[in-house]
Amino acid sequence: MLFLLPAYLSENTSITHFSPVIKEYIMQTDYFFVENEKTARKVVKFFAPEKKQSYLKLFLLDKYTENNDIKEAQELMLKGQDFGLLSEAGLPCIADPGNLIVKWCHEKNIRVIPISGPSSIILALISSGFNGQEFTFNGYLPIEKGEKKKQIQSLEASVQKTGYTQIFMETPYRNNQLLEDLIKFLSPNTKLCIAANINDPEHEFIKTKTIKDWQKHKPELHKIPAVFVLGK
């Protein structure tokens, strides 16, 4: 079996926010696909502090991974070994490369077990006040200035034309620059939700305002995990 295990969005989140079954599945196997070993060990310790870290068998699965890179792990699964798939934050396979092994499991008739947990994308959407029936997650915007401007204006036009909510992210150290670009390239009356430090009991920040209002009071977002949402 492959357990799709959620990770916390903030280390300060109480463990009572999570299903006890997460710990049960972590205790059930020592084998995990992970995007980052250091983060994965912290997540395992958060949910199951009594589990011996020396027992963990971690297989790297990031955006560069191909099936040949995890052949050893796949052979173990074909022999009946259970594995967990751990995200860097939130749910596996959403803004996360884990779908590679999930797809392979379906092809090999290996059972996939999803466990509910937080998704920053969904939590930002439901907190925004925007259309939750029809929405698009756009991942990360282009880095190049001209392409980024074109994408931002295209997302705004899509909101106005279709009513679909548009969700996107940025690498945390570029958040402030993205906000500056949004203020610069979007119309003053366009509405933007910024959802930062989601699930952090002390520092969570979720606000929906027009661009002209954001221009008056810009939050400090440098190196803070955030999701940006455009909508009506």
TrEMBL record:
UniProt superkingdom: Bacteria
Q: Which Gene3D superfamilies match?
A: Cobalt-precorrin-4 Transmethylase, Domain 1 (3.40.1010.10), Methyltransferase, Cobalt-precorrin-4 Transmethylase, Domain 2 (3.30.950.10)
**Which Enzyme Commission number(s) are listed?**
2.1.1.198
Say which enzyme class the record assigns. transferase
Q: Which GO terms describe its molecular function?
A: methyltransferase activity
InterPro entries linked to this entry: 4pyrrol_Mease, 4pyrrol_Methylase_sf, 4pyrrole_Mease_sub1, 4pyrrole_Mease_sub2, rRNA_ssu_MeTfrase_I
Q: Where is the Tetrapyrrole methylase domain?
A: 25-198
Keyword Nuclease attributed: no
Entry keyword rRNA processing: yes
Output this protein's name: 16S rRNA (Cytidine1402-2'-O)-methyltransferase
Q: What is the lineage of its organism?
A: Bacteria, Pseudomonadati, Bacteroidota, Flavobacteriia, Flavobacteriales
